[in-house]
């Protein structure tokens, strides 16, 4: 692949606009830019998660997810273009089934806590949900395929499951919510 970025500081955004992949310019507070930014932030948080000790196979899965998020960001930056394939959603479904199958059934709510890897996976989950909301909002204004929304929805579910998997490394467990209301009703 040839060099694509020749200059980082172009100063073309000094007027409060940014360029899209189709060479149009939009305001930096445009819904499309919010969606692209949330996907970029999610990808960065996954990069932080990759710095942690992870269960076998999880790092490879997360690197593939980073590539797919780059595809998603590219698709969002070029209105009407398709980069994220439906197969990427199916891959998340497979990963969800595999990792969820290793976990005990949830019988109580859990807190977004535990070890560092699990806690960072929960941050990824919440940023994925925000990115999904941004994509939904954009889809109300502009035509979008279903795949980006579905991918982010599945990814947030997977990050929840991976947080639980990470909490079980080295014999750990989830951090359960202690609800006074639930305790009174038992």
Automatic annotation (TrEMBL):
One of its GO terms (biological process) is cobalamin biosynthetic process. This is Cobalamin adenosyltransferase. Homotrimer. Residues 8-166 form the Cobalamin adenosyltransferase-like domain. InterPro entries: CblAdoTrfase-like, CblAdoTrfase-like_sf, PduO-typ. PANTHER family: CORRINOID ADENOSYLTRANSFERASE, CORRINOID ADENOSYLTRANSFERASE MMAB. Pfam families: Cob_adeno_trans (PF01923). Belongs to the Cob(I)alamin adenosyltransferase family. The keyword Nucleotide-binding applies. Keywords: ATP-binding, Cobalamin biosynthesis, Nucleotide-binding, Transferase. Residues 1-23 are annotated as: Disordered. GO terms for molecular function: ATP binding; corrinoid adenosyltransferase activity. Its EC number is 2.5.1.-. It is an enzyme of class 2 (transferase). SUPFAM superfamilies: Cobalamin adenosyltransferase-like (SSF89028). It catalyses: 2 cob(II)alamin + AH2 + 2 ATP = 2 adenosylcob(III)alamin + 2 triphosphate + A + 2 H(+).
């Amino acid at each position: 692949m040839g060099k694509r970025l020749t200059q980082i500081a172009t100063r073309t955004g000094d007027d409060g606009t940014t360029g899209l992949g189709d060479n149009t310019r939009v305001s930096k507070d445009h819904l499309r830019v919010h969606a692209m930014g949330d996907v970029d932030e999610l990808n960065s948080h996954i990069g932080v998660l990759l710095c942690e000790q992870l269960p076998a196979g999880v790092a490879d899965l997360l690197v593939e997810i980073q590539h797919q998020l780059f595809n998603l960001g590219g698709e969002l930056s070029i209105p009407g273009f398709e980069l994220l394939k439906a197969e990427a959603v199916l891959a998340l479904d497979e990963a969800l089934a595999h990792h969820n199958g290793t976990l005990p059934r949830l019988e109580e709510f859990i807190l977004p806590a535990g070890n560092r890897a699990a806690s960072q996976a929960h941050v990824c989950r919440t940023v994925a949900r925000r990115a999904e909301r941004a994509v939904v909002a954009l889809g109300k204004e502009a035509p979008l395929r279903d795949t980006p929304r579905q991918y982010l929805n599945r990814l947030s579910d997977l990050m929840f499951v991976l947080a639980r998997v990470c909490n079980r490394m080295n014999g750990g467990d989830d951090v359960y919510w202690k609800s006074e209301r639930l305790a009174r009703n038992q």
